[in-house]
Amino acid sequence: MTTMSTPVSSDRPFLNRRLAAFGTTIFAEMSALATRTGSINLGQGFPDTDGPAQIAEAASRAILTGLGNQYPPGPGVPELRTAIAAHQQRFYGLAHDPDTEVLVTAGATEAIAAALLALLEPGDEVIALEPYYDSYAACIAMAGAVRVPVTLRPHAGAFTLDLDELRAAVTPRTRLLLLNTPHNPTGTVLTPAELTAIAELAVERDLLVVTDEVYEHLVFEGAHTPLAGLPGMRERTVTISSAGKTYSFTGWKVGWITASPELITAVRSVKQFLTYVSSGPFQYAIAEALALPDSYYDTLRADLAAKRDILADGLAAAGFEVFRPRGTYFITTDITPLGEKDGLAFCRALPDRCGVVAIPNQVFYDDRSAGATQVRWAFCKRTDVLEEAVDRLGRLAR
Question: Quick one: which of 215, 286, 212 has its CA closest to 245?
């Protein structure tokens, strides 16, 4: 006997209304476009070569010897938590207890989600630097909080933060500042003076701060300064980083949080109901990666700086206004000099025009008009791929 199912009939949409504004990500759309057209994908930020062979071998060794093949400990394997604490001490002089002040996550994306879901309640305001990585907006929405953007604006070849605008954005309802430095997509690296001003504001107004520092080792001019090391910030800052960008193993999804025991406990309370645990064998491998010598990090920066210059020079020659980044592996350009005014339309047409894919920055803004003419390019690719992309983009000038 066949039973007919009753069609679902309701005026209420299936998707939670808080997420109604979030459809398929721009990264999925543009990567699919690259595949369909056979274009060079300078859109999504993943390297086209793997990281150090010795770290890949460490992951293989972990799998074959049974390390992490079953559920790892909820906070992360002790070897990785100890390595993360040692990394913070080595590079920044920050002492963390690996048992109470370190939490391993499924990449920085889960760390952001768990932190915001843990620390926010409906109606809380969150100040985020705009343009922002797209998951920020979705996670704030899932928490029922209110996003308050403070826009980084182009000036003299770079994007800058207006500290007066930041201060003016704080209200009695502000709960948290969400920062990203080095900054995706603009490549901005907040200066020690800017970070000091932000820290003073957070202390004065008793704000929590979540800092996304996944590009901490990709700073080409100057050095990365962690906000947690500034006066008054240790007890109010959740610092997030991950292995993907530094070691070129983005698919392993190994991220982490360092914070006070109270903040770690709050975030872990949410994280345990998201992935619970993840990336078992890879955690052992990343513990070894974090101990790589200084020469590894120096070579990584030098290689990416050279690739940045290849792509930046090529984009300038093609007619774009180029904002040469101080950090990350992204370049933001303005398409206005090409006679264009809609970055989304430009990016959708670019594969057919040049065989290259990029990302329109307007999707990273609340006010789409503020980023309407900006386009982001990833330079974490092989040199020959970047040179071919530059050659193809030259068609725009020709």
Answer: 215
Instruction: Report pLDDT for 11.
Output: 80
Q: To the nearest whole number, what is the mean pLDDT of the chain?
A: 95
* Tokens linked to 246: 């530094």
Contact yes or no for 371/296 (Cβ under 8 A): no
Those residues whose C-beta lies under 8 Å from the C-beta of residue 159, and which sit 6 or more positions away, are: 152, 153, 183, 186, 187, 188, 323, 332
Secondary structure of residue 132 in the 3-state scheme: coil
d(CA 290, CA 282): 12
What gap in Å lies between CA 230 and CA 177, rounded to an integer?
Answer: 15
Token reading at 24 = 């398929």
The pLDDT score that the predictor gives to residue 28 is 87
The CA–CA distances, whole Å, from 139 to 19, 250, 251, 270 equal 9, 21, 21, 13
Q: CA-CA distance, 321 to 318, in Å (whole number)?
A: 9
Whole-number Å distance between alpha carbons of 243 and 247: 6
CB atoms within 10 A of CB 53: 8
List the structure tokens of 5: 């199912």
User: E strands within the chain?
Assistant: 40-41, 102-105, 125-130, 146-151, 153-155, 158-160, 174-180, 208-212, 237-242, 255-258, 321-323, 330-334, 356-357, 359-360, 374-378
Which single residue is written with the structure tokens 């005014």?
Answer: 341
What is the end-to-end Cα distance of the chain in Å, rounded?
69
pTM value? 0.94
**Token pair of 45 as six digits:** 């930020």
CB 180 within 8 A of CB 212: yes
Weakly modelled stretches of the chain, pLDDT under 70:
1-10
Structure-token match 């499924």, residue found: 106
150: left (phi over 0), alpha (psi -120 to 50) or beta: beta
